[in-house]
Design goal:
With 327 residues, the chain is mainly α. The protein has helices at residues 22-51, 54-80, 95-122, 133-164, 168-174, 178-207, 211-239, 246-257, 292-307; strands at residues 262-274, 277-286, 312-319. The protein is elongated.
């Protein structure tokens, strides 16, 4: 028996992402959100300093944390798009989940914890009366800007959900694209947070009781905490081996069985290695009775065609064991 190891198959050539893909859509969505949140954060901070409103302080912290998060999401988009190399044969796609999780932790600490803590410290204090006209102006402008950002995220979500035959909210929960999910839920939370802040300030003015303003700050913090925990959980799922959904498995089987030389699939492993990027391992039956060297060439050619598919980061095929039933 020879002690030589079998030759290692060459890696497929790097696949640059073409313009107009989900990645470019996500980049635009993040840039719109970053611009909107930066402008809103500055305006809220100025008004919070003038009025001393607990709800406005919470909203300013919310917008600054969202702005920082968008920077992390930009890093996620850039680093995860790097092509595979010898050190990372399956590419850098999981970088998107790492940076998105860091952004979610930032939302939890800088947004949620700070807002709740500030609201609690303000519960027993009397805020001095202030003119809240500019507060409502800033909240209204913020609502418009956040709405523009949310509509961009919603447009991308609806388009991709429609192609997958899914409802938008289900797609947001299940998509392998963490930046789209983060922008969508953060913008939705921002719109709700603005309503909570306006309600807290309005009740403070109407009743003369500053407790309502503090409660508004606490509720904004709780809302951000819920969003952050959701985002952390979903990114953790993908980092620890999120199962590929049934629809994607069905699509992968169709792509493999579309090869004329493949008669059946007896084993199929699909694993997300990045947003809309899958590592595929399959055991297949090849039609005919080719000699070994021709069979190896046939399998390599099929792998090359599978590797050219947008959804597949890398495909590895092997022969099914004799008598192994198909899936």
């Amino acid at each position: 028996m020879s002690s030589q190891e079998p030759p290692v198959r060459d890696l497929p050539p790097p696949k640059p992402k073409p313009a107009g893909t989900e990645s470019s859509d996500s980049l635009l969505t993040v840039l719109v959100a970053l611009t909107a949140n930066a402008l809103i954060a500055i305006a809220k901070s100025i008004v919070a300093a003038i009025t001393g409103s607990a709800s406005m302080v919470a909203e300013a912290a919310h917008s600054w944390s969202d702005t920082g998060n968008e920077v992390f999401l930009l890093v996620a988009e850039r680093t995860s798009a790097k092509p595979a190399d010898r050190r990372h044969p399956l590419g850098y796609g999981r970088e998107a989940y790492v940076w998105s999780m860091i952004a979610a932790f930032g939302l939890f600490t800088a947004g949620s914890v700070l807002s709740i803590w500030h609201g609690i410290t303000q519960l027993g204090r009397d805020e001095s009366e202030a003119n809240y006209t500019w507060t409502y102006v800033v909240l209204a402008v913020a609502f418009v800007l956040e709405g523009i950002s949310f509509l961009q995220a919603l447009r991308q979500t609806r388009g991709q959900a429609r192609r997958r035959g899914m409802r938008s909210l289900r797609f947001v929960a299940e998509t392998s694209n963490p930046t789209l999910r983060a922008v969508f839920v953060e913008d939705a939370a921002a719109l709700i947070g603005l309503i909570l802040a306006a309600a807290g300030i309005g009740l403070h003015q109407a009743t003369g009781n500053a407790v309502w303003d503090a409660i508004g700050s606490i509720l904004v913090g709780v809302l951000l905490g819920i969003v952050a925990i959701f985002l952390i959980s979903r990114n953790r799922d993908y980092l620890t081996g999120q199962a590929v959904d049934d629809d994607t498995q069905a699509r992968a089987r169709e792509v493999i069985l579309a090869e004329p030389a493949i008669e059946a699939i007896s084993f199929l492993h699909l694993e997300y290695v990045g947003p809309s990027r899958i590592f595929l391992i399959a055991a297949v039956d090849i039609t005919g009775d080719l000699p070994e060297h021709e069979l190896a060439v046939q399998i390599q050619r099929i792998e090359d065609r599978l590797n050219a598919h947008d959804l597949i980061e890398r495909a590895i095929l092997t022969l099914s064991a004799p008598g192994k039933p198909g899936l």
